[in-house]
């Protein structure tokens, strides 16, 4: 299964990541992620690649600095967040819970490998490890997010569960491997449609 959610649909229509909108989560069975080789056959594609690299650098720097501070606060128990941040927190938590409910219904998490692509602070990958997943690969473009996710995992997981989760810093295009379930929550928005299609 692959579960993808986003706050902006390809048409540009806004949709909240809440339970009432989970119809926008797409699911597929058994998935392989391949790292995408960069090919540029002409000047136009080279410029397009440079533009995407620039955009990726901006996203990476944001989520390692100001963005990390803001989103880490939202994805925590901090009581000082504003109404908009509370709505984001609620929507994200509900989306994570919907995915976990799907997994719980099958009652076989211990037999499955998971890829949490764009894991943030571990709000999905840590609960997966708690469910005794066979293996969880959790990655994020932000080193700061990965560091926080690993720290939270070390505090919340026992030694056995911790041994079955791996945190790495990498962007979506660098992820490869074969997984039973791939989850990507609120990350695809940062990629153009053609790159999303290639990765899927």
TrEMBL record:
Transmembrane segments: none annotated. Pfam families: Methyltransf_25. Residues 115-199 form the Methyltransferase domain. InterPro entries: Methyltransf_25, SAM-dependent_MTases_sf. It comes from the Eukaryota. SUPFAM superfamilies: S-adenosyl-L-methionine-dependent methyltransferases. This is Methyltransferase domain-containing protein.
């Amino acid at each position: 299964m692959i579960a993808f959610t986003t706050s902006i649909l390809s048409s540009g229509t806004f949709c909240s990541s809440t339970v009432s909108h989970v119809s926008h989560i797409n699911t597929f069975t058994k998935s392989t992620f391949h790292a995408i080789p960069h090919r540029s056959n002409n000047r136009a594609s080279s410029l397009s690649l440079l533009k995407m690299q620039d955009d990726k650098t901006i996203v990476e720097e944001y989520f390692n600095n100001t963005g990390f501070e803001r989103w880490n606060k939202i994805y925590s128990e901090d009581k000082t967040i504003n109404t908009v941040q509370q709505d984001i927190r609620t929507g994200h938590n509900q989306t994570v819970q919907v995915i976990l409910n799907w997994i719980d219904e099958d009652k076989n998490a211990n037999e499955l490998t998971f890829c949490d692509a764009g894991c943030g602070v571990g709000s999905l990958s840590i609960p997966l490890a708690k469910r005794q997943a066979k293996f969880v690969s959790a990655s994020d473009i932000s080193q700061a997010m990965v560091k926080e996710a690993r720290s939270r995992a070390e505090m919340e997981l026992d030694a056995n569960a911790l041994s079955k989760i791996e945190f790495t810093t990498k962007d979506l295009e660098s992820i490869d491997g074969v997984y039973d379930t791939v989850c990507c929550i609120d990350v695809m928005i940062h990629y153009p449609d053609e790159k999303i299609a290639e990765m899927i």
